[in-house]
Structures are given as C-alpha cells and as structure tokens.
Design a protein that fits this description.
Layout: H1 2-41, H2 44-51, H3 54-74, H4 80-98, H5 101-104, H6 107-130, H7 138-159, H8 162-190, H9 194-220
Length: 224
C-alpha cells in the first residue's frame, strides 16, 4: 500500500511540475505576443507595412502556420533550445499580425475581452486539470466542430453573411472552450519530457486561448 501511495505522490508531483512548465511558457508566450502587438500598433510605419501589403501579411500568417507545424511535428528531433526559440518566434510573429486588432477595436474593449477570455480559459483549464471524468470522448466531437467552423468560415468569405459569421463565432467559442478543458487533461495525462514537453503543451493551450480571445472580441470588442 505504501509503495502505491509513494508512486501516486510521485506521479502527482511530476504532473504538477509539467503543468507549471506548460503554464509558465504559455504565459510567457502571451506576454511576448501582447508586447510585440502593442509595439507594432504604436508604429505607423510598421502598421502601414502590414496593412498596406497583403503579401507581407499573408507571408507572416503562413510563417506562423509553418512554425506551429515545425514545433508539433519535429518536437522529438529538435533540441530544447531550438523548440524554445521557435515557440518564442511564433509568439512574436503572432504579435505582429495581431497588432491589427488595435486598428479595428478600442484598447479598452481589447483589455476587457482579454480579461473575459482569461477568466473563461482559467475556469475550463482548471476543470480539465481537476476533474475525475474522462474527457477523451470530447476529442472527436470537438475536432469535427472545429473542422465545421473552419469550413463555414472559409465559405463565408465569399458569402459575406453577418448571420453565418455570428453563428460561427458562437460555435467557435464553444469549441475552443471545450478544447481548453480537453487539452489540459490530455497534457496532464501525457506528462511530457522536460522543457520540450512543456513547450508543446504550452503551444496547444496558447492556441486555444488566442482563438477564444479573437472570437470573443467579435462580441465584446467596440469598433473604432
């Protein structure tokens, strides 16, 4: 009995250490994104370069996508230092592209939406970490929901329907809210291996947070 209790305590401590690393890297990534976004938004030259050149903007977007794929797919083949650098580079590039929201929305509404997002994310991540229920059954449902939201959003680029956009935003918020709890439990159960495991988990939760924030901004953001 004592042996099992010792093993349980060891696993619990290991999980807590991994999750602290995950939240630490995620928080650092969000801080870097916010810092770069504000610096970029405060520079008319940089904003003009991004907003006035679609090729540059899409190059940044595809660059971010490439970094996510690189980190996720090559995490076992790259060093911890490389994984750290790629994650920070991704967070910085995301800050550059997200600087455009300061043109569309007021700073006060961006700040209030960030706080709402932080509250929702914190509650769902805590639920995913503490719950005894198995959330693995959520995975396929949430993935199908995510695919549906992406496809509908792409179609709506041509339809330009405010109603479709509104419905997809609501569905998107629900999907990423669920993913926050699901991903947190999955990261906790997987454990991870040192800094690289923490970075991969941080990237997953970072993406949940950012997408939730951007979707909620459509509801709570006051346009300029």
């Amino acid at each position: 009995m004592e042996r099992y209790q010792t093993q349980y305590r060891t696993i619990t401590v290991a999980n807590s250490t991994v999750m602290r690393g995950v939240y630490g890297w995620m928080g650092g990534g969000l801080f870097l994104t916010a810092f770069v976004a504000m610096i970029t938004a405060s520079s008319p030259v940089l904003l003009q370069a991004i907003l006035g050149n679609r090729l540059l903007f899409y190059a940044l977007v595809f660059g971010e996508l490439g970094l996510v794929i690189a980190i996720s797919g090559a995490i076992n083949r790259i060093s911890s230092a490389t994984a750290s650098a790629l994650f920070l580079l991704y967070a910085a590039l995301n800050g550059v592209t997200m600087s455009t929201i300061f043109v569309a929305y007021t700073q006060s509404s961006i700040a209030s939406t960030f706080l709402v997002t932080a509250g929702m994310f914190g509650a769902m991540s805590l639920y995913g970490y503490l719950t005894k229920s198995d959330l693995s059954s959520w995975g396929s449902f949430l993935f199908m929901g995510l695919v549906g939201v992406v496809i509908a959003s792409l179609v709506n680029i041509f339809l330009q329907s405010p109603m479709v956009s509104w419905v997809m935003s609501i569905c998107g918020v629900l999907v990423f809210t669920g993913l926050t709890a699901y991903d947190t439990q999955r990261i906790k159960q997987m454990g991870g291996s040192g800094r690289k495991g923490a970075i991969l988990g941080a990237l997953t939760l970072y993406l949940d947070f950012i997408n939730m924030f951007l979707l909620l901004l459509r509801f709570f953001g006051n346009r300029r």
